[in-house]
Amino acid sequence: MDEHAHPSVMTFVAVWITLLFFTGLTVFAATLELGPFNAIVALGIATIKALLVVLFFMELHYSTALTKVIAIAAIFFFMLLAGLTLSDYLTRGWSTYPSTH
Asked: Domain check: are 3 and 52 in the same one?
């Protein structure tokens, strides 16, 4: 007996249609001139789409609590790694030492 819940076919279809909508929204947003916000809007839409894929197609929404905690921990450590990398990259020009070029 299968004791775990699984998404229905209608859930998959609804998520697929939602992903198509957000793909169209991504294409539309790419035609707008938003200046520095172009990347922010594109990454925001991509994050929503990735979240839908992980939650429903990879069935994280229906997984055990331990699986959810591990997924959240992985995202946290990825953000920590990205943040530390960006903090190094963005502060490279702050040096008071004369350039050797």
From this structure: yes
Calculate Rg over the CA atoms of the chain: 20
d(CA 85, CA 100): 24
Global pTM reads 0.72
Centroid of chain to Cα 31: 21
| Whole-angstrom distance, CA of residue 72 vs CA of residue 58 | 14
Note whether 72 and 54 are same-domain residues. Answer: no
Give the closest residue to 15 by CA, choosing from 46, 44, 47, 55.
Answer: 55
Model confidence over 44-58: pLDDT tens digits? 999 999 999 999 999
